[in-house]
Write a structure and sequence with these properties.
TIM Barrel, Rossmann fold, globular, 23 helices, eight-stranded parallel beta sheet, five-stranded parallel beta sheet, 685 residues
Length: 685
């Protein structure tokens, strides 16, 4: 019996019977998943099949519902084409790879931002009127445009039905074209498509009516819409409760709710949003809904999902990132194996790449099998080898697990007292990152054939003695030092000082208090460390981080430290040589982090500023224009990031036939890069 009886139970959406209550929301994975002809590649088919085989009940996939010219594709996000008979072949195959595993698939004619009324036109930003909530001014649609728009969507739905797709989803949310008609913030029309709520919903209702006319009354129509959009002057909950009835009378089989628009400044998906938070919206909609309601965004934990269903806040859990992170999420839920789920850590790398930057879906913080890795299954090694993995951060652990799955004999060496490498420290500032460490610990417990040596610093002599066939070096990067007068003072804390402290190695700092506290702290944390304990100690105790902190380096490490210290009312100044604070922070997080800094009376940001010297009282800086300033600080935290650390890898060349360096030691970057690099290295052995 599953631990998740509701999440694992079937649910009917019109004529569709879902085998469980987990569905994906729509997103095209982008370049290299769809070719220039608008056809899915092997990568795309495998992406869909992997998730259907993993037990996902319903997959929603975006489809381009109007012609695109090849000459325009270089700057457009690629989507599978689905408006003509010539597309039936690849659309049928997309359905087949899902159906063969008992999954269902619905298509969403992608009508979010751009559209074009004629094949030779350029795709442009269309809407009901020129009213806008952003810098983009929509082209107002005439009634002729509206007619063509409806015809385009209906024709796409007819083709999807012929190709064997199980239903369609009408996109009437997130600030898309239909949503802009529904909202008074973007619709000031005076005809039958503007004014009253019924008029503003008219286009959505007409689209649904014409789909039913063309595809049959029983062909399921899901509607994705945004009852709470955080747009000034837009829909109220009172209006949204009325929209529920309008959509149901039009024939919807599921309210698939999406909080906010793409233009919304309220954080929606980042890790700071609590798990399952947005279910309060679906809970309100369910009070009047007569059909199932799906909640989306920030649903990544099966226990939270089950609780949402148990409290009758929703009927279906919709999401994408939990499914990107672990394609087998649904199967593990239904089999009662939640400890085996590789949970999303909400790093937003997938969203940053695909939506913000127009890149393909190649990277995930926890799942390396995206992009080209999807094109081939993980193959067994021709010959089992002795593999030494040095370091147990994300790159090392990904490498070790992958090598073991391929049939190699793997031994992990970690110089600290616990697995996790940099994850041990990262989890202090981002508690959700401990999920990945917990996942790997659980996996290794279930696979004792992977040996682990803790408290073991690897030297070339040790490697020579152990005689491995291959070595993967994943020891992390060198912290970038600040080379100014006073940089070695007792009030200076470097990023790796924390990691050394957690590893039981007291940093050597001048001052009797430092010596006593670092020595005592290192002994205590070596045996009793938890991220929560370290976070509480660091925040509530005025050592080693005092009440006034100067943070040198406004990249990701500095931002994470500052964000955590804001919770404890520290006085902060962030000093950065580049133009932007958070220059290497993902796009999903950066706006909200920097916005919080700007709003806080306790945070000062100094961009285009260099540190000149550090004293016991604070930091001397010089600005781009040559002017100087002094910032008082009890503690100076140096968070300049990392640089390559290739000494050990270079020393091992010639001693071992195969040597690979992965993660920050070879390429300082984000967690997803290290995870991918570890996987790829293990595949080469």
């Amino acid at each position: 019996m599953s631990q998740f009886p509701l999440l694992s139970s079937p649910v009917k959406l019109g004529s569709m019977l879902l085998k469980n209550r987990m569905m994906t929301t729509s997103m095209s994975p982008g370049h290299d998943y769809t070719n220039e002809e608008g056809q899915p590649t092997l990568r795309f088919y495998n992406y869909l099949e992997e998730r259907a085989a993993g037990g996902t009940a319903l997959i929603c996939q975006t489809i381009c519902f109007y012609p695109r010219l090849k000459s325009q594709l270089d700057h457009l996000h690629p989507l599978p084409l689905g408006y003509g008979e010539e597309h039936l072949s690849h659309l049928s195959k997309m359905a087949e790879v899902v159906h063969k595993h008992g999954g269902l698939i619905v298509g969403q004619p992608y009508a979010v931002h751009d559209w074009k009324p004629a094949p030779e036109d350029k795709e442009e930003y269309w809407g009901p009127s020129t009213l806008s909530v952003s810098k983009l001014i929509p082209k107002p649609m005439t009634k002729e445009h509206i007619r063509i728009f409806k015809e385009n969507i209906v024709q796409c739905c007819v083709i999807l039905q012929k190709a064997g797709w199980d239903g369609v989803e009408v996109m009437a949310g997130v600030g898309g074209i239909l949503n802009r008609f529904m909202s008074p913030a973007t619709n000031d029309r005076t005809d039958e498509y503007g004014g009253s709520l019924e008029n503003r919903c008219r286009l959505t209702v007409e689209v649904m009516a014409e789909i039913k006319k063309a595809c049959g009354e029983d062909y399921p129509i899901i509607v994705r819409w945004s009852p709470v959009d955080f747009i000034k002057g837009s829909l109220t909950m009172e209006e949204s409760l009325k929209i529920v009835k309008i959509l149901e009378e039009a024939g919807a089989v599921l309210h698939n709710l999406a909080p906010g628009w793409h233009e919304t400044s309220v954080p929606l998906t980042i890790k700071d949003v609590p798990e399952g938070y947005w279910s309060w919206i679906s809970e309100e909609i369910k009070k009047v809904a007569k059909i199932p309601v799906a909640t989306a965004y920030r649903n990544t934990d099966p226990f939270s999902m089950e609780e949402i269903l148990a409290k009758d806040k929703a009927d279906v859990i919709a999401g994408l990132r939990y499914n990107i992170a672990d394609p087998e999420f649904a199967n593990k839920v239904m089999e009662g194996r939640p400890e085996d789920i590789n949970k999303c850590i909400c790093c937003c790398r997938c969203l940053d790449d695909v939506i913000s930057q127009g890149k393909p879906l190649n990277y995930c913080g926890v799942n390396p099998r995206l992009g080209e890795e999807l094109e081939t299954p993980l193959a067994q090694a021709r010959q089992s080898k002795e593999v030494m993995v040095i370091g147990s951060g994300p790159g090392g652990l990904a490498a070790a697990v992958t090598a073991a799955r391929r049939g190699h004999k793997v031994t992990i060496y970690e110089r600290g007292p616990r697995l996790g490498g940099c994850l041990v420290m990262s989890a202090i500032f981002s508690p959700i990152y401990d999920r990945l460490n917990t996942y790997y610990k659980t996996l290794l417990k279930k696979h004792p054939e992977v040996k682990v040596h803790l408290n073991t610093a690897v030297t070339p002599a040790l490697v020579t003695r152990e005689k491995p066939d291959a070595v993967i070096v994943a020891i992390g990067g060198h912290p970038i030092d600040l080379k100014v007068p006073g940089a070695e003072g007792g009030n200076v804390v470097k990023s790796h000082d924390f990691l050394e402290l957690l590893n039981g190695n007291p940093p050597q700092k001048p001052g009797i208090i430092n010596k006593v506290m670092y020595n005592c702290g290192s002994v205590f944390l070596k045996f009793f460390y938890t991220p929560d304990l370290a976070r509480t100690f660091m925040g509530k105790f005025p050592w080693p981080l005092g009440r006034k902190i100067a943070i040198i380096g406004g990249g990701l490490p500095g931002c994470e430290l500052a964000k955590e210290m804001m919770h404890y009312d520290r006085e902060l100044v962030i000093i950065e040589e580049k133009k932007k604070i958070g220059h290497d922070v993902g796009g999903s997080d950066r706006f909200h982090i920097v916005s919080a800094f700007k709003k806080s009376p306790r945070v000062t940001m100094e961009m285009l500023t260099k540190v000149k010297a550090i004293t016991r009282a604070g930091v001397k800086v010089v600005h781009e224009d040559g002017s100087e300033a002094f910032h008082q600080a009890k503690t100076v935290a140096v968070t300049l990031g990392f640089e390559k650390n290739m000494e050990l890898a270079e020393a091992l060349k010639g001693r071992v036939s195969e040597v690979y360096a992965v993660g920050d030691c070879s390429n300082p970057a984000r967690m997803a890069d290290a995870t991918k690099a570890g996987y790829k290295a293990a595949c080469q052995i």
